[in-house]
């Protein structure tokens, strides 16, 4: 067992640390975790020590016969140990396993970000996805060396047709400056935006300078299955979301995207909040759409969605125009998804406490405590999400984009390396889901795309909402 310990430490020392907290503890010095004369054993702050050394010792004890009760499932044991370090790991374990069912190509727009490269190292080691990095070749190669990540980089111009299968074990780098697909990409982007204020030269400029646009075009054309962007902010979230939605299109019947945040809280489990990103003052139809999209996303985590549409009012106790809007949204959701556990309008405490809810509405369709909270507007969603996160010390996963025809997510610039790893898994599993459902972009359908207003007009509405629902359903609910 001592030998197993030494071998595990030696193996770990030769692998680059993918945790930003380790380098931060040493003033951000990358040499502090690069194997060599100054780094012979892992640092005491390295979170991998627990999940690597303990399983190695346990396995040696079982192999030698010393252990009277050997661990039956070593992979699960390692996962449990990792959850002590990364609190989202135990919850995300099922999602990580799903990614291995069908490996998806996920393009990361900010390939020159150290956190992105560290997350890619984890993704490669754990088989979460086949990453594609957008960035300058020399910059990515330099960071790869400085961080000691030893990523097996492969550039598109060096991949032969006969070597395509073997290239899957490499990390592809998209350097648009000398990639032969450049012309195809800017022509495709212009074909989408030709009558939306974008000229051919502007299309070339965006493909050259905005990696979010480039990543979205790659996903649209099938050169990637999913995308992540946002670690290096260039434009506002809403402007970038509008561009992505215009390129990849919306799911059939969906008018606008939405954003959902997930908090994994100590002793409280996972709770989802929507819409934390997009619609400022949703009407009843929009709230219903947000609820349905968020419920589907919750199911991908292996959970049963229990949705509560929140308000200041409990089932009509505080009549107001907003209360009526939320109550109507709840009726619409029940009409469209009768098997979904959903109710509203209700106060937050009512959603969290079954006893309180039963005293107010004994026949509520929401049986258990809610795990999905649909907020009345963007202010309420953002404030409550951040407040709960801060007070509960909850670990964030997201934001998760809802409603697009392809798996495309815009993250926050403050996201950690582990947060990116989680989002790579979320993006990959959503791509699997969309492929299985046969979802395809519908850019030519004016009822399922983002607003055609100029992307450079700050006063233009972000997303049109007219005609997004079957008029007969809406009319029936109005009556």
From TrEMBL:
Q: Which organism is it from?
A: Pyramimonas obovata
Q: Where is the signal peptide?
A: none
Disordered: annotated span: 438-459
Name assigned to this protein: Phosphate acetyl/butaryl transferase domain-containing protein
**Keyword Acyltransferase recorded:** yes
Alphabetized UniProt keyword annotations: Acyltransferase, Transferase
- Listed InterPro entries: NAD(P)-bd_dom_sf, P_AcTrfase_dom1, P_AcTrfase_dom2, Phos_Acetyltrans/Butyryltrans, PTA_PTB
Report which superkingdom the organism of origin falls in: Eukaryota
